[in-house]
Amino acid sequence: MRVGFIGLGNMGFRMARNLAKNGVPLTVFDADSRKVELFKASVIGSIEKSSTPAELSAKCKTVITVLPDSSCVKSAYSSQDGICE
Prior knowledge:
By secondary structure, the protein is an alpha/beta fold. The protein contains four helices and four strands.
């Protein structure tokens, strides 16, 4: 089962890395695309990237978000390209 992971900052990067190390296939998204590229380059495993939270949620039954504040959470879930789209 592929898991969606949104937010590859200080905490999210480490959490997603641990999932990948344990064989969990991930689809990842971060508002900063450089963090996604850094994650893909430094983690071994089945990693796909998504261009929006909506695209990610369409591919994954389980979505984990690790975001820094409520405005980021609101945007990830309810923006035009958000998870709930």
